[in-house]
Each structure stands twice: as structure tokens, then as C-alpha cells.
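Regression report. Comparing outputs from two consecutive submissions.

Submission 1:
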Amino acid sequence: MSRLSGKVALITGGASGMGAATVRRFVAEGAAVVFTDIQVEKGEALAAETGARFIAQDVASESGWRDVMATITDRHGRLDFTMNNAGMLSYQNIEQVELETWHKVLGVNLTGVMLGCRHSIELMRQNSGGSIVNISSIGGFVGLAADAAYTATKGAVRLMTKSIAVHCAREKLNIRCNSLHPGSIDTPILHPATQASPDPEGFRQFLHNMAPMGRMGTGEDIAGTAVFLASDDSSYITGTEILVDGGLLAGTPGF
């Protein structure tokens, strides 16, 4: 397992869930990994486990992005891959969403991704190019009635990714940018909704049954796709969206 040998990778939201699975997989594939999160204790534990470097970061802060890129430059001198994975849910529909919550979700899910792309491009263009993966969601294709802010950001990430991809291609930067769209993934981000259900086990089974494949995805499912997009095997793929949803959006429910 050395598909990423010699590459330097940055993963935001890397302390748990899909991010942590990707940190582990990228280290196993030979990459030098830097990951960030606001969950300091979990981040430090994962760094001790994997040998990856952890940096505490609020992705909505531009000064934080400057610090992260300065650390990567000082330690590695290059950046080959960025996965903008940090994100949050609000669990508030359009009638419930508070303005403060709206701005916070947009700050993390959209502004944080934009800053990650901009600062990654600045560093990647100094070497031979690179690959950026922005984590969107099936919510980038269909509306999630229970979360207006989350849906808005994930749809925006999908189209912003295309804008970035076309810009980089036309500027001959050799930097690819794609969006990855998970369906129901069995990670801690789903725990609040599960615990709030009057029937937690029934709710989990409902999530498993949503996809035609009959199960929720795992962090490893996302990590494997990210490895492909970081590798040279995907060198002609840019500006596209990849669904990792067990076929959820491929068919009509019940038929």
C-alpha cells in the first residue's frame, strides 16, 4: 500500500469520522499527512497513533490557514493534496434556523472550504500541482428539509468546486479540484440525531436501509475514494462530483 508515497497531504476535520479514517489510510499509503481539527484531544491521540502531524485549526479563520500552510512549508516544502473535510450540521429547518447558527455553518462548511482551496492553490502552484477534494454531501444534490444551512452550504460547495477546477485548468496550474458527496455515513456526526430519536436502533436501521446497498457507508469508504483522487490514477479528473452513497440517489425510493 504505497499509492501516495512521496506525497504531502492535508486533511481538515481529521480528528474523527471520515477525516480520521482518511488520515489512517493516507499514512498507510505512504503519504506524509498533516491534519487539523478543533478537537484537540482526539487530534493529539490520532497523531500519536499514526505518526501524522496534528494542528489545531478553526477553518473559518484565515489567519489559521496561514499558520497551517506555514507549518507545511517549513516541514515539507510542498503540498500535493488537500481534503476540505471539516463540517457541521445545524439540525434546524428554515423556520427554526437562528441567524447566528446560519453564519456559523456557512463559516465552517463554505468559507472554510473556500479558504482551504485558495491557500492550497497558493502552495501547490509552487511545485508541480496537486489535487483538492471538497467534501460536499448528497445534500449538494437534494434538499434536506431538516437542515437549511447545511443543505445551502453543500450545494454551494459543489458548484464552487467546478469554478475552482475550471480556473486552475485554464491557468495551466496542474491542480485538480473535485467534490465528494457522501450519503449516510456511520460516523459520530450522526450521533445527535440518533440519540434524539425515540427509537435509536430503529433510526439506525432506517439509515442503513436508505441506500439500495442496504448499509450505511463507513469512513473507510470515503478514505478509499480520496486515495484515488489524490493519486496519479485520477490525473484527468477535475471539476466533477463523485457520489459515495451506496446507490441512494441512483434510483426511485420503493421501486
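Submission 2:
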Amino acid sequence: MRANGNWRLVAALMSAIIGLLSGSAFAQQRIGNASSVSNQVEGVIAGASRTLVGGSDVHLNELVRTGEAGVARLVFLDDTNLGVGPRSEVRLDRFVYNPDRSAGSVVVRTGRGVFRFATGVQQPQNYVIQTPIASIGVRGTIFDLVVTLDRMIVTLVSGQIRVTTRQGQAASLTTPGASLTIYAGGAILRRADWGGTPPPDFAALFGSARLADRSSWGTRASPADHRIAIGLSFGGAALVRLPTNSSSGFYTGDLDQGALGLLIGISAFTDVARFGNAPGPFGTGIVSLGIVVDDIIGTALQWKGLCGGAPCDGSGHLNELNVIGEIKLTTPISTTDSANVYVGGGLATLWPTGTPTGAGGPSFVGHASAPAVRVGFGFDRRYSDTFAAGFKVGAQHTFATEFDTTLVGERFRFSGKTEILFAVTLTFSP
């Protein structure tokens, strides 16, 4: 009995030793090398650390960690390139490579730090980069990545990527130079928000390296990601000034009181440029160009003036259609909120009705168009990658217009029209 017990003990010890050895062999599976190393870079396997130098092998499950000025370029067996900047750490969690490219899997897990990633020869869908904030799926790609405690910023160099937050929200980048900021709480912002800290100099860190003799590590500039935003507006227009006179000189007057009409509008904008990296409003922003079309209907008019020198009152209504080209400057004011200012010009077409001189006098006939200018500001809150809501307030001035009347030879003239516009806005970014 004692012999059998001893044999069982020996068998258990042998099994444990074999398990440890096989686990160690698996953990130290070679998957590539550190093709270049600068300053302090170390690899950690199973708690044991070593200093990496140029040409050092790197292994599955090895944690690569850089010091204050450390930079490393890792090249894996499938030609995947990973640049690791200062004060950064990364671990290759999974590496399966079949040279026929029909099967494989690469999972890279980053901690905090600065990185540049370029896919190798495997199928693009085989690559996943995981961070504490979101995961990145690639489609044959080079991109730059910064991960901090409260956000990650990814900038596309080439190809396409799709980012999915821990909360399940997703966003894609398809334009070189475009960026996403993903906050720890799950919010997504379509630009790089450095939170008051200067951005890394990726060109200085990685610009001189080559990617398996296929392309350079240098980033390509892009003025903006050319995002299209479609907007709907619902609000009103307060008409505050409408000086009116007749061509014969018999009548002159203006509004007796402000008039309010219903505003319904649509808009389309595209981002054309971005500027700045400084913190605070207008330290960074996006310039957009677009067109706004809005209809103002049902404005009830009350005129007060002089008819042949005697006081007279009149009434009527005004409808108008505005087609305005605008330039808009948008700047973030929080992780989800942004403010904007805009200025534009275009054409206003007016359909007045009624009799400024009172009952029995000549009435407006037809419509007329005139140039118009508009300025204003707005506020938006983004609720997802595709939807935002907010409000805008502006002022529009329409230049002089003339209209036929029911009295042959007599015309009415608006010397100019000034109104305040306000609306709730809904914005969709396909």
C-alpha cells in the first residue's frame, strides 16, 4: 500500500512538472522580434523582466514596457508592425499565424501609452487591438493610438478601422488623418481631444521606420474627416423691423409691433478643415461649409404709418423662403457638448399679403427676392456617433424689395427687413 501511495505521489509530481514546463514553453512561444530599440525597454514574462535590445525575440504573453524616453518597434512573424512610444506598455495576448493566410488571429492588448500599429499579411479581420476603454477592429490599416486613464485617441493613417466602446457604441474611420476620441464613460467625439496636454510627436517617434518595405510610418495630413451633417430646425422668427413705403410717396410706415412666424428648416454641412490643439473653447475646432434652407410662415403684420400725412394703420401676413450658404466654426466645450458660430449669405424670397394703408387701400400682389445676410451662434450635445440635438439663435437682414399692388402704377417697397431667428436643432451624421 505504501509503495502504491509513493508511486501516486511521484506520478502527481511528474504531471505537475510536465504541466509547468509545457505552460512555460507556451508562454515563451516566439512570435517576432524587437527590430529597433531606443533607451529603456524591457520585456516581462511570468514576472521575470529582461532588457530588450535591437534584435531581441519577443514572445506570446510577454509584456513590453518602455521607460521615460524608451521607444521600440516590434515586428511579428506575420509582418505586423507595432511601434511603442515612451511610458507605454503592451502585451500580445494571442498570435496564430497560418502562412496560407486563410486562418489566424492576432489580439494585442495595450495599457496606457503611445502606439502605432500596422497590420501584417493576415486577413484584416484577424486583428483586434484591445485597450482599457475600447477595442479596435482593423481592415488593412495603419493607425496611431494614445491611451490615457480617461480617454483614448486614435488617428487613421491609412485603411479603415472600427472602434467599439465597452458600452457597445461603435464608430468608424475611413479618411486618412481623421481622429476619434473615446472617453472612459463611453462618449465618442469625432476629433482628437488632448485634454489640455500637447499631442505626441508621432513623426519624431516613428517617422523614420519602414513597414516591412511596404510604406513609411509617416502620417498623411488631412484638413478634416469631411463628415456630412444633415440638420432639421424647428422654431420661430421674430420680425423686428420692416420699414414700408409706396412708390407714389402717399404712404410711409413701419411695424406697429414685433411679429412672430413659424420656422421650419433643413441644412447640410461638411467639415472642410480643423485647427488647433490648445485646451479650452476655440483652442481647437472644425470649420464647416453648408447650405441652410428654411421657411418662415404665418407672420402676422401690423403696420402703423402716415397716409398723405394722416395717421393710418394696416395689417397683413408675410411668408418667406431663405436659401443661405453658411460657414460655421465649431469648438468643443466638454466631452459631449460643442458650441458654434456661423455667418452666411444668400437669397430671401418674400410673399407679403395685406394692406399697409388700411381697409380699402392697395394690397400686395405676388412675391419678390432680395439678398440676405445672416449671423448667429449655436450649441449642440452629441448623444451618439450619429445624433446630436441643440439650439441656435441668429439675426438676418434682408435688403430692399419691391412688390406690385392691386392699384395700377403703385408699388410697395420694403426698405429692408430685420428679424431674429431661433430654433431647436436635430443633427444626423451618417
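Expected: both submissions complete independently.
Actual: both completed, but the second showed a warning that disappeared on reload.
Relevant detail on submission 2: The radius of gyration is 33 Å.
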